[in-house]
Amino acid sequence: MTALLAALLGKRAAGIVGGVLGFIVPVPLILILAALAWVHFDKSSAVRKAVDDAVTELVAGAEIAALKAQAAAQREIAARSADAAGEARRRLTVEATARTNLSIRLVAIQTENEMLNDDLDDLLSRPVAGDCAVDSDFIGRLRGR
Predict the structure, then answer these.
(1) At what angle do helices 11-24 and 2-9 cross, to 10 degrees?
(2) Which of 2, 25, 55, 72 is the most buried (most CB within 10 A)?
(3) H or E, element range at 20
(4) d(CA 127, CA 138)
């Protein structure tokens, strides 16, 4: 590698760059080894165990709180579903009552219509006077109503 640098930069520059690279490359390796050693020894320390226990307890507490919130939400959904079902039953009852009342009223209207048609047929079956005058029977019925 030094020969390649010497060919590209010259001997003096290759010596400077080679010296800098020779110092810089081992530094990250030393830092990585130090970090790994710190992690290894840190796992066995009492402070680390206390932190791990606290984190575990915090996570468990958060999970319990989330489960409680989920259970409360499910109870709320169940209550609203029960309310919606009750409202649907009430509407069904009101609709059935309205349909029954409507059918009774329709039968009454049809009966009244048939009676009025019979009265109309009765009136039409009587002959009209030749001079188109109103007879006394018709006038009497008008006054009676």
Answers:
(1) 140
(2) 2
(3) helix 11-24
(4) 11
Tokens of 79: 């209550």
Count the Cβ atoms, other than its own, within 10 Å of residue 5. 17
The Cα–Cα gap between 59 and 69 comes to 15
Q: Spell out a b/e string for 11-29, using b for 16 or more CB atoms within 10 Å of the CB, else e.
A: eeebeebeeeeeeeeeeee
Our CA angle for 17, 18, 24, nearest 5°, is: 85
* Residue 2 contacts residue 18 (beta carbons within 8 Å): yes
Token digits of residue 105? 């009223």
Tell the residue number behind the tokens 């009552």, with chain if given: 97
- Along the 145 residues of the chain, how does pLDDT read in single tens digits? 555 545 555 555 556 656 656 655 566 666 776 777 777 776 667 777 888 888 999 999 999 999 999 999 999 999 999 999 999 999 999 999 999 999 999 999 999 999 999 988 888 887 766 666 677 777 777 765 5
Residue with tokens 């996570």: 59
Kindly report the length of the chain. Answer: 145
Give Cβ neighbours of residue 18 (< 8 Å, ≥ 6 apart).
Answer: 1, 2, 5
